[in-house]
Structure formats: structure tokens, C-alpha cells
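Input C-alpha cells:
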């Protein structure tokens, strides 16, 4: 069986307000959890408690996601600032030479 190859290049990934998106989703998961809590007995009677705990898990995993994307966002900004400083220091002469290039 032949390996599939793309006919065109993949587009660049979209960058947007990632931290705000993850935070909003986390708030929604926790809100759904809190809305379902008063009906815990109803869910238990119908063997549907997984709905309640799925919302709790979504909120908890969202907290981990917020921590992760905040760190990622900070790293991206730090990298962009370092690159801008390097280009400014080089007088925009081009990319910095790589270590071990023997030149």
C-alpha cells in the first residue's frame, strides 16, 4: 500500500487569544458542574452521575490547561523578544551563526 502524500503545504497554525479561550471553557465546565449539583439525586437515580463528574473533570483539566497555555504564551513572547534583540544587535545582518558550523 502506497504512503499518502499531501498535494499542498499545510497552512500555518492559527494563533489567537488562547489563554482567554481556555479560561472561558474552564469557566463553562465549572458553571455546568455547579448547575448540576442541586440535581445530584436526580442524576444518581437515573445512573447519570457521570454527567456531573465529567463537568468537574473538565473544569479541573481546564485549570491545568490554563497553567500550560500561560507558560506557552510567556515562552513565545520571550522567544520573540530575544529574536528581536538579536536581530537589532546584529544590525539585521541575518540569522545568527550556529555553533559547530566550522566557519
Amino acid at each position: 500500500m502506497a504512503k499518502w502524500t499531501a498535494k499542498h503545504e499545510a497552512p500555518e497554525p492559527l494563533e489567537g487569544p488562547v489563554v482567554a479561550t481556555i479560561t472561558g471553557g474552564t469557566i463553562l465546565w465549572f458553571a455546568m458542574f455547579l448547575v448540576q449539583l442541586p440535581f445530584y439525586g436526580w442524576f444518581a437515580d437515573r445512573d447519570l452521575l457521570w454527567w456531573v463528574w465529567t463537568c468537574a473533570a473538565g473544569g479541573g483539566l481546564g485549570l491545568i490547561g490554563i497553567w500550560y497555555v500561560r507558560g506557552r504564551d510567556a515562552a513565545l513572547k520571550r522567544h520573540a523578544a530575544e529574536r528581536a534583540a538579536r536581530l537589532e544587535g546584529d544590525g539585521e545582518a541575518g540569522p545568527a551563526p550556529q555553533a559547530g558550523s566550522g566557519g
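The chain is about 65% helix and 0% strand. The CA atoms of residues 4 and 10 lie 14 Å apart.
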